[in-house]
């Protein structure tokens, strides 16, 4: 039985976070993280890797649920909490918690509520977490890495999808990916349980990067800015506000 509220186990570059649930009758195991849109190349990862590790260290009766989550990291690793931009005092935000949502969610609630009612007791935190800040000294290196990451996928994925993509006829049931169709045309495609192939433009409507297929969650993801689309090409997570072009399920 796990008595602690939160435990982190780390060995090398691998870490696991453990939390009790259902009155200590269940265990939540978190880990196997990776950059969005960049599925690790090794075969055992994600749900399978976590399940194998958990069964090795704990007596497991059954797996109750599986899910994925997305964590936002600001360039300077400090959350954005408070006024979202200059000149709009009533537009408030709280984001960039970097996996510390439980703790920073409570802190942001205090800061934002103080701003709304005009209290001054959170002034020190307001200054620290100011969402309007622009500190190049502390964020320049990470900002440069982010720019390089986006550029790599914006250009590199297009070339990769032209040269290393399978033919669409190779698509198996309940499988998706980026495929060749009609000569050199590249499409995002998914074959449903009935064998029907759904295909659409792989270009993310946000800023033009190509999406990649996440085989664990069975969704398409943009590796540049994190937009996510279900297997039918419908957008369900921004920053994109539009589904992939050619998506037959779009309203």
Summarize the structure in words.
With 251 residues, the chain is of the alpha+beta class. 25% of the residues lie in helices and 23% in strands. The strands form 4 sheets. Strands 6-7-8-9 form a 4-stranded mixed β-sheet, with no helix packed on it. The protein has a 4-stranded antiparallel β-sheet with strand order 10-11-12-13, with no helix packed on it. A hairpin with a 5-residue loop joins strand 8 (185-191) and strand 9 (197-200). The protein is globular, with a radius of gyration of 21 Å.
Q: What is the structure about, briefly put?
A:
With 251 residues, the protein is an alpha+beta fold. Helices cover 25% and strands 23% of the residues. Strands 6-7-8-9 form a 4-stranded mixed beta sheet, with no helix packed on it. Strands 10-11-12-13 form a 4-stranded antiparallel beta sheet, with no helix packed on it. Strands 1-2-3 form a 3-stranded antiparallel beta sheet, with helices on one face.
Give the topology, please.
Layout: E1 7-11, E2 14-21, E3 26-31, H1 46-57, E4 80-83, E5 92-95, H2 101-117, H3 123-128, H4 136-163, E6 166-167, E7 175-181, E8 185-191, E9 197-200, E10 212-214, E11 219-221, E12 228-229, E13 235-237
Parallel strand pairs: 6-7
Antiparallel strand pairs: 1-2, 2-3, 4-5, 7-8, 8-9, 10-11, 11-12, 12-13
Features:
Rieske Iron-sulfur Protein, four-stranded antiparallel beta sheet, four-stranded mixed beta sheet
Counting DSSP E segments of at least 2 residues, the number of strands comes to: 13
Q: Tell me the Rg in angstroms.
A: 21 Å
Widest sheet: strand ordering: 6-7-8-9
* Name of the CATH superfamily of the largest domain: Rieske [2Fe-2S] iron-sulphur domain
With helices defined by DSSP (H or I, 4 residues minimum), what is the helix count? 4
**CATH-level-2 architecture of the largest domain:** 3-layer Sandwich
Query: Average pLDDT, to the nearest integer?
Result: 78
Text of the CATH class of the largest domain? Mainly Beta
Instruction: Tell me the count of domains.
Output: 3
Low-confidence stretches: 1-6
Largest sheet: 4 strands, mixed
Query: Roughly what fraction of the amino acids lie in strands?
Result: 15-25%
């Amino acid at each position: 039985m796990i008595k602690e509220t939160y435990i982190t186990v780390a060995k090398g570059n691998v870490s696991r976070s453990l939390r009790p649930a259902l009155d200590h009758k269940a265990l939540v195991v978190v880990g196997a993280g990776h950059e969005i849109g960049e599925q690790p190349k090794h075969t055992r990862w994600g749900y399978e890797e976590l399940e194998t590790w958990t069964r090795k260290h704990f007596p497991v009766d059954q797996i109750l649920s599986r899910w994925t989550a997305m964590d936002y990291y600001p360039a300077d690793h400090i959350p954005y909490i408070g006024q979202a931009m200059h000149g709009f005092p009533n537009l408030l935000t709280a984001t960039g918690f970097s996996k510390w949502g439980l703790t920073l969610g409570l802190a942001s609630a205090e800061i934002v509520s103080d701003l709304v009612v005009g209290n001054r007791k959170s002034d020190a935190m307001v200054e620290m977490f100011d969402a309007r800040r622009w500190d190049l000294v502390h964020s320049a290196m990470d900002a440069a890495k982010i720019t390089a990451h986006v550029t790599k996928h914006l250009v590199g994925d297009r070339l990769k999808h032209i040269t290393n993509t399978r033919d669409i006829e190779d698509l198996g049931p309940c499988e998706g990916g980026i495929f060749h169709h009609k000569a050199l045309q590249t499409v995002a495609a998914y074959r449903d349980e009935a064998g029907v192939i759904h295909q659409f433009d792989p270009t993310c409507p946000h800023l033009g990067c190509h999406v990649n297929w996440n085989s664990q969650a069975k969704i398409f993801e943009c590796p540049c800015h994190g937009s996510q689309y279900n297997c039918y090409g419908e957008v369900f997570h921004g920053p994109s506000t539009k589904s992939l072009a050619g998506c037959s399920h779009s309203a």
